[in-house]
Amino acid sequence: MKKLNFLFLTLAVLMAVFSSTAAMGQQSMVQPEQDGGIITQTAANQNPTTQTTTTQKKKNPLADIDWLKELTSRIELHGYAQAGYSYDNATDKTNSTFNLKRTLFWAKARITDRWFFLFMHDFNSVVQEFYTDYRITNNKALTVRLGQFKNSFSLENPMSPTQLELIDVCSQSVTNLSGCYDPLYGLNYGRDIGLMIYGDLFKDKLHYELALMNGQGINKKDGNSDKDVILKLEYKPIEHLRFVVSGQKGRGHAVGTAEWNPDIHEGDDYRRDRISAGAEWKSDNLSVRAEYLAGKDGDVTSQGAYMTACVPLVKNLDAIASVDFFDRNTKMEYDQTNATAGLQYWFYKKCRVQLQYTRCWRQFAKDYNWLQAQVQVAF
Q1: Model's pTM, two decimal places?
Q2: Which long-range CB contacts under 8 A does 237-241 form with residues at least 24 apart?
Q3: How far is Cα 225 from Cα 247, in angstroms, rounded to an integer?
Q4: Comparing 258 with 73, which gets the higher pLDDT?
Q5: How confident is the model at residue 40 (pLDDT cuts 50, 70, 90)?
Q6: Are 341 and 321 in contact (CB under 8 A)?
Q7: How would DSSP label each residue in 220-240?
Q8: 5 or 354, which is more confident?
Q9: What is the DSSP letter of 166?
Q10: Closest residue by Cα to residue 232 from 154, 143, 129, 131
Q11: C-alpha–C-alpha distance, residues 108 and 78, integer Å
């Protein structure tokens, strides 16, 4: 009797398992028709390759994303290196050296269609830039930038060294007045930390930049509680031509001293104002850029001007000429004039070889000759 009861119990369990399995199999063999209905078991049996489940889980939308493709489409990687040779007789002893001037690498990330981030590092010096841009308007009328970046003063300072014609990069005036280097301000590569709004108006004919900056340079906090205001306006009346004016109003915090400005000592806060006006013509046959700049550091006024031209000679070969004047103190004999002539050959996109000779005339020291050669590789 016990054996019979055990047999019936075993049979009942097997039938229950079989029934459950069959039921689940039936549910998994139905699929929606074209009109959104559910086909019968017979139809499912007739087309077993189309079997699916009506209780199918919703797919995770992230599961279908090609993350490698998505990442590469949103991040741009760029870099360049500039190395060469320099000879001069500026002192009683001639100077001759090979040099590695710049090895920059930067990444630009597109977070959304409106939001970007950039990080730039020079392996030959320090972190150069890190900032984020957010475009507020649907067009290019208003974008906000926050972080560390090149200031807007002058024509040349915002331009990349890979675009500028001179091996020494900027003119004397731009180098001293835009924050690239001067003894009072220090070495800051024309960059600062702050907030800027910029945009293009009137069918891209007018470009504006308005910034509130520390006025202390890169990778450091402000030395005083004052902030510098920089305004730049750029007008393009016709193709190839642009006119640019810029100005800066602020107070510096001296990190050193300068012979031509003896009243400002290290640690002093001082008036630091700038103005500039210039124009550039840039076409396939000729590029000419000229600008006047002036500054006020404490009670000392400085001023300068430059003109640089680039003329294609044959395919990939350009002739370069530049005249550059800067007076560090208009009440003292501290002006210098440079005249440069040279050639550059573009052997690949963004890659060039340069050779330039510069004659330098100085009021405050002896005149000298300067010979430079440089190779640029960029991507």
Answers
A1: 0.81
A2: 237/205, 240/281, 240/282, 240/283, 241/279, 241/280, 241/281
A3: 20
A4: 258
A5: very low
A6: yes
A7: S--SSS--EEEEEEEE-SSTT
A8: 354
A9: B
A10: 154
A11: 8
Q: What single-letter amino acid sits at 36?
A: G
Structure tokens at 309: 């031209």
User: What letter does residue 258 receive in the DSSP assignment?
Assistant: B
- pLDDT for the residue numbered 36: 42
Residue in 309, 305, 311 with CA at minimum distance from that of residue 278: 305
- Both tokens of 232, joined, read 């730049």
β-partners of residue 267 are none
CA distance 224 to 159: 28
Handedness of CA 200, 202, 208, 210 (dihedral sign): negative
pLDDT tens for each residue of 95-125: 999 999 999 999 999 999 999 999 999 999 9
Hunting for tokens 């709004």 — which residue is that? 197
- Residue whose pair of structure tokens reads 């000779």 in the numeric block: 357
Nearest-angstrom CA–CA distance, 109 and 105? 14
The residue whose two tokens read 């031209």 is 309
Q: Are 299 and 314 in contact (CB under 8 A)?
A: no
Distances (CA, A) of 316 to 319, 343, 371, 376: 10, 11, 22, 14
